[in-house]
């Protein structure tokens, strides 16, 4: 049971890395022109706000893609985690296969994460929350919801083949912990404006 749990944590982190990194790197490389162009809606509030920028979006997508590509490259060279077999991203199930299905899965994890983050910023603005104001649970899960949704749409077969229920539940439990942890570090380093 203990080994199963460790395996689920390692596999979960491995598979979600192309979704986790875009989010953190949007905060590092973000800034500049906001995606909503500064526009407001009828409620008088910004569509998305200054926290969602083109640079953050594209830096995130690029970094997510490069992360996934690096993981595939590592698998091709026989990388494993202390004997734990790591899954690939291709629907063929072959670790290290860098085909169209793998590219689609990686991009879906990265783009889905950033779109989820954007969608919930839209919701936060409609609820009257300022940019950066905390919305517990949503701030920790927005990108994960987006990543799972888009990946389920484009790569459902790969997703169900790769994540068993235990790994899926482990991802849901560790994601907010990781998110809060990295944001506190980002805040100390002066990268994040708020520690959430
Ligand atoms: N960021 C960005 N572009 C994105 C996403 C994030 O530039 N598409 C950067 C912004 O500098 C943002 C930071 O990453 O401030 C942290 O992201 P997040 O916490 O999601 O944004 P908030 O500033 O908290 O804004 P919101 O209230 O809309 O979530
Ligand atoms: Mg925030
Ligand atoms: K967010």
Question: What do you see in this structure?
Answer:
The protein is an all-alpha fold and 196 residues long. The protein has one domain (15-163). 65% of the residues lie in helices and 0% in strands. The chain has 5 helices and no strands. The structure holds cytidine-5'-triphosphate, magnesium ion and potassium ion. Magnesium ion is lined by residues 132, 139, 194, 196.
Structural topology:
Layout: H1 2-29, H2 54-76, H3 100-126, H4 138-162, H5 165-188
Helix pairs in contact: 1-2, 1-3, 1-4, 1-5, 2-3, 3-4
The structure holds cytidine-5'-triphosphate, magnesium ion and potassium ion (K).
Question: What tags apply to this protein structure?
Answer:
196 residues; mainly alpha; 5 helices; 65% helix; binds cytidine-5'-triphosphate; binds potassium ion; transmembrane; CarS
Describe, in short, the structure shown:
This protein has 196 residues and is mostly helical.
Number of strands: 0
Major sheet characteristics: none
Count every helix, treating DSSP H or I runs of 4 or more residues as helices: 5
Ligand list: cytidine-5'-triphosphate, magnesium ion, potassium ion
Outline type = globular
Strand % is under 5%
Oligomerization:
single chain
Structural domain count: 1
The overall average pLDDT, rounded, is 96
User: What helical percentage do the residues reach?
Assistant: 55-70%
Order of helices and strands: HHHHH
CA-CA gap between termini: 33 Å
Q: What is the structural class?
A: mainly alpha
| Radius of gyration, whole Å | 17 Å
Low-confidence stretches: none
């Amino acid at each position: 049971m203990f080994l199963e749990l460790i395996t689920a944590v390692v596999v979960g982190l491995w598979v979600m890395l192309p979704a986790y990194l875009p989010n953190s790197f949007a905060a590092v490389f973000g800034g500049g022109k906001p995606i909503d162009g500064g526009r407001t809606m009828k409620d008088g509030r910004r569509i998305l706000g200054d926290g969602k920028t083109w640079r953050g979006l594209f830096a995130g997508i690029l970094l997510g893609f490069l992360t996934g590509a690096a993981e595939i490259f590592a698998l091709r060279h026989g990388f494993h985690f202390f004997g734990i077999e790591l899954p690939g991203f291709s629907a063929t199930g072959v670790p290290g296969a860098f085909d169209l299905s793998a590219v689609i899965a990686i991009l879906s994890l990265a783009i889905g994460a950033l779109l989820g983050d954007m969608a919930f910023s839209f919701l936060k603005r409609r609820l009257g929350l300022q940019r950066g104001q905390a919305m517990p649970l949503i701030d920790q899960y927005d990108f994960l919801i987006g990543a799972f949704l888009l990946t389920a749409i484009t790569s459902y077969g790969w997703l169900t083949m790769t994540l068993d229920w235990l790994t899926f539940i482990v991802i849901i439990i560790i994601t907010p912990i990781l998110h809060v942890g990295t944001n506190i570090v980002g805040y100390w380093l002066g990268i994040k404006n708020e520690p959430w």
